[in-house]
Amino acid sequence: MGEIVLEQVTKSFGDVTVIPPLDLTIEDGEFTVFVGPSGCGKSTLLRLIAGLEDVTSGAIRIDGRESSTIPPAKRGLAMVFQSYALYPHMTVRKNIAFPLRMSKMSKAEQDKRVEQAASVLNLTDYLDRRPGQLSGGQRQRVAIGRAIVREPAAFLFDEPLSNLDAALRVGMRLEISELHNRLKTTMIYVTHDQVEAMTMADKIVVLRSGHIEQVGSPLELYRNPRNLFVAGFIGSPKMNLIEGAEAARHNARTIGIRPEHITVSAEEGQWSGLVGVAEHLGSDTFFHVHDTGLAETITVRADGEVSFKHGDRIYLTPRTEFMHRFDEQGLRLP
Amino acid sequence: MARAVTSQRKAINTAVAWTIGLAIFFPILWTFLTSFKTEAQAIADPPVWFFFDWTLDNYRVVQERSNYTRFLWNSIYIAGGSTLLGMIIAIPAAWSMAFVPSNQTKNILLWMLSTKMLPAVGVLYPIYLIFIQLGLLDSRFGLTIVIMLINLPIMVWMLYTYFKEIPGEILEAARMDGAGLREEILFVLTPMAIPGIASTVLLNIILAWNEAFWTLNLTASRAAPLTAFIASYSSPEGLFYAKLSAASTMAIAPILILGWFSQKQLVRGLTFGAVK
Predict the structure, then answer these.
(1) Are residues B174 and A71, on separate chains, in Cβ contact within 8 Å?
(2) B183/A85 Cβ within 8 A
(3) Please, where are the H alpha helices in B115-262?
(4) What string of DSSP letters covers A19-52?
(5) Which residues in chain A are contacts of B187 at CB distance < 8 A?
């Protein structure tokens, strides 16, 4: 069980309000990702749930129990830190067993659980090493092992992959997702990387300056961003946002069209421009098109085989059924 | 890029380092040599180096004239006691300043250090009067307290810099793992800080062992440690260099041996922070 409910939670540091009143429900077993630019309050929110920071006002209920004044040790949550935060003076075995030792579990049971976690995380051969003798990926797995052995009500991840290199990050992303599928435990995951958010989450919470901009499944956010901020934040490369006459033609202040919803042609189309940078990924090619008279750059995705070069004139046609329209306040128009 | 060091350069560096090392060590070596000479040889001009009649007479005389063991025990009592007492106060103090700092933490640290800038003799009179009033003159207990207080700022500073090096996230991880404050300090903080605690302890034992100003002023005979033992051989009328040297050698030997065995810790403690 691990339902977490935030009710009118606020956090201030002195005169600075980091989290204005905020309500959020995280269902039991859900993989929820807090995403937003740096300084949006996502880590603070996680630390409030963990109990590492005290709420200024409001209530945090974990499994129905008001927990905002309970010390972190008693909340039944486990956390994985960005810096791994392993105990450098203990072996991997002792690191993983530490939470069990704190809960006064019998030695036999401790050993059993540590062995189990180690085999799940491919750490069996490293149990007697110290953290200093492990690679970054292995350290992160030890940190996860330390979190799973105690079977917490929920896992909290604070940007756990940002210290890893790109290839390792993709691998660990899959491992964490698989872990969630197997354990079915509530997970809250903080990241500034929208790709991590899109690929892992059941539910994404987009935050900006402590406010929740939108909550929804990855595809809901992708298809129906509630406002310009979410539209620009979710999706890679970013959605093209166009203002002015072209937007007015669609009865909107701003229109948005994703790079993958524009078709490219050498002969004809609704818009035209010159190819700036062409990024060939093999499977896809992204063209950054200039001089369209719409916006400084329009990014389009084309098939990997399309080979326009720098300076070529190309024609673009947006697929209007995928066009997003926003009003003066930046809110989505129906 | 690593700098290329020629073998000639290396040889020069080695020679310079040895020269400086020997120059620093020379007074101790000379004291040691002198302690085996006769009083006449000790003041001979030109000085005799190694070829004299090695004798243990000085040690015998010193042992006969004064009770070395009693001074030694006083030194151990005062150095050990003041360090132990100081650590009991300094560890929680440094912990709170490193991990739960307030706006005033930096000021408090500076203020503590500022007490070291005051010449000790400036407070001799008031402390002497207090000692008379409390009946602490010539007591080991009183001396232990004073020396602990003298060294406390250094202990707090050293421990503070060590504790600051421990990432806060590790302590937070311990809290998340179910550790209370006691377990956090016992199982996570202390083991990680042991090198720092060890070098703080060592340095303070040495400082307390060699402290002479307060020990000479606040003791007469009962509580006198080895510093007073040395001082008793530098009598104004007498030229007892050899015996003085023997007494000095006996006084510094224990601490020199301790320092020798723990030099790795000490060097790390003294240079800590300098290379970061």
Answers:
(1) no
(2) no
(3) 124-134, 140-164, 168-176, 181-183, 190-210, 213-218, 226-231, 241-261
(4) EEEEEEEE-TT-EEEEE-STTSSHHHHHHHHHTS
(5) 98
**Among A275, A238, A279, A277, which Cα is nearest to A256's?**
A238
CATH of the domain at B117: 1.10.3720.10
Q: Checking DSSP bridges between strand A284-290 and strand A298-303, what pairing results, if any?
A: antiparallel
Give the amino acid at B10. Answer: K
CA distance A253 to A83: 44
State the Cα–Cα distance between residues A312 and A260, nearest whole angstrom: 20
Q: How many CB pairs under 8 A join A and B?
A: 60
Burial of B256 (0-12, 13-18, 19+ CB in 10 A): middle
Pick A200 or B245 by higher pLDDT: A200
Residue A192's contacts (CB-CB under 8 Å, 6 or more residues apart) are A35, A36, A37, A38, A42, A159, A162
The DSSP secondary structure of A307-332, one letter per residue, reads ---TT-EEEEEE-GGG-EEE-TTSBB
Instruction: Kindly state whether residue B270 falls inside one of the protein's structural domains.
Output: no
ipTM: 0.84
Distance CA A19, CA A34 (A): 14
Is residue B237 in some structural domain?
no
Helix (H) or strand (E) holding A232: helix A228-233
Q: Which domain holds residue B197?
A: 66-232
Residue A248 has a CB neighbour count (10 Å cut-off) of 11
**CA–CA distance, B265 with B198 (Å, rounded to integer):** 7
- Residue found under tokens 């050293």: B158
Domains within chain A, CATH numbers bracketed: 4-231 (3.40.50.300), 238-326 (2.40.50.140)
**The model's pTM:** 0.76
Cβ <8 Å between A52 and B172:
yes
* A146/B191 Cβ within 8 A: no
Taking chain A (334 residues) in runs of 10, the rounded mean pLDDT of each run is: 89 90 93 92 92 92 90 90 89 93 91 91 91 89 91 92 86 90 93 91 93 94 94 91 90 93 91 92 91 90 88 92 92 89
Count of structural domains within chain B: 1
Nearest-CA residue of chain A relative to B184? A102
CB neighbour list of residue B124: distance below 8 Å, 6 or more residues apart: B217
3-state secondary structure of A207: strand
The interface residues of chain B toward chain A in range 155-214, judged by CB-CB distance below 8 A, are 167, 169-170, 172-180, 183, 187-188, 191-192
CA-based angle B147:B151:B155, to the nearest 5? Answer: 140
Whole-number Å distance between alpha carbons of A147 and A51: 16
For residue B1, the tally of other CB atoms under 10 A from its CB is 3
Residue B33 counted as domain residue: no
Q: What CA–CA distance (Å, rounded) separates B132 from A57?
A: 57
Token couple for A49: 């749930």
Query: DSSP readout, B63-129?
Result: HHHS-HHHHHHHHHHHHHHHHHHHHHHHHHHHHHHHHS--TTHHHHHHHHHHGGGS-GGGGHHHHHH
CA-nearest of A111, A96, A101 to A149 is: A96
